[in-house]
Design brief:
The chain is of the alpha/beta class and 340 residues long. The chain is built from eleven helices and 14 strands.
Length: 340
């Protein structure tokens, strides 16, 4: 697993007490963390994407590729993945599609033709919802019960091919070179995604959002067909209940979010320990991403940190999680190529 970190990577301030002053009775030693890449707050979206652009195009070579954005609520995960507008603030998703389009054009001269479809789902309270379907709805902060009441889609695994998919999710054909179409898909999903206000974040995503580009490449001359997938995942933010003061529906959401993030940590811990059993099915998120998280795929994790002093404890937890993930070795990825 490769890892890129958004924010500061060295040191951690002491834990603030309830009164807001540092607890001098329990001084915290200075801790240093090392990662593949650290992006400071002055770094723009273009430089961040430049670090992962070659990783993205692996999907067109027949690999299962996954990029996840992890961190506490309000730390900039959605900004990293989606960005804003059509200029320099564009995020990973639109830039990745632009990169895919450029690579497709290059591969076309070598005899490859590609068919592509997009699914975009969210996992809300362990229910999988379609963000591109006509009946996706747009739940408001006063109407989350309707989102929960909707019948969730099922994550399934084909026993013959091993392919994991969301049964019933809308699959939209897409031309990655059509920037307007890509922006429309992202905007549609954003309108339908569950968000709400908490004391930690005025616009807090209450679900994990998974954008997946499914592609099939065919080369008639070589009589070869490959199948790849690019998963771009905006994880819901972890949150401490003593800071968010979540109650009622917000509390239930926070508990579900934290539980699924713990399941993700459990998968990485099992992979790092090389255990014979990896608990992919402990959550729908890890089950859906199993092909990329297992030894057959390629996974990269962005960890976003909030710069505020009040978020020091959450930042330290994120740094430690990132350190754990960075120690995982998935092994050599496997291409999905067949003769036709």
């Amino acid at each position: 697993v490769s890892l890129a970190l958004a924010g500061e990577a060295e040191g951690a301030p002491r834990s603030p007490t309830r009164g807001g002053e540092h607890d001098k009775r329990r001084p915290r030693k200075r801790e240093t963390y090392a990662y593949d890449r650290v992006f400071g707050p002055e770094v723009g979206q273009e430089e961040v994407f430049g670090e992962v652009s070659e990783f993205v195009q692996s999907a067109l070579d027949g690999y299962q590729v996954c990029l996840l954005s992890y961190g506490q609520t309000g730390s900039g995960k959605t900004h990293t993945m989606q960005g804003a507008g059509s200029g320099p603030m564009r995020g990973i998703i639109p830039r990745a599609m632009e990169q895919v389009a450029a690579y497709c054009a290059q591969q076309r001269t070598r005899g490859w033709a590609y068919e592509m479809e997009v699914t975009y789902v969210e996992i809300y309270n362990e229910q999988v919802r379609d963000l591109l379907g006509e009946d996706a709805g747009a739940p408001t902060t006063r109407d989350f019960g309707r989102a929960e009441a909707q019948s969730g889609l099922e994550v399934r695994r084909d026993p013959k091919t091993g392919r994991v998919f969301v049964d019933g999710a809308t699959r939209r054909p897409i031309d990655p070179a059509d920037a307007a179409a890509v922006d429309a898909l992202v905007a549609c999903a954003a309108r339908h995604r569950c968000v709400a206000s908490t004391e930690m974040n005025a616009v807090s995503s209450r679900s994990h959002a998974v954008f997946t580009l499914h592609l099939t490449g065919t080369n008639a001359e070589r009589r070869a067909r490959l199948r790849g997938a690019l998963h771009l995942v905006d994880l819901a933010g972890s949150e401490r209940l003593d800071r968010s003061h979540a109650q009622g529906q917000r509390l239930k959401e926070a508990q579900s979010i934290n539980k699924s993030l713990s399941a993700l940590a459990g998968v990485f811990a099992s992979l790092n320990a090389k255990r014979s059993h990896v608990p992919y099915r402990d959550s729908r998120l890890t089950f859906l991403l199993q092909p990329a998280l297992s030894g057959d795929g390629k996974t990269l994790l962005f960890v976003n940190l909030s710069p505020t002093a009040a978020s020091a404890n959450e930042s330290l937890c994120s740094l430690r999680f990132a350190k754990q993930v960075n120690q995982v070795e998935l092994g050599k990825a496997t291409r999905a190529v067949e003769t036709v």
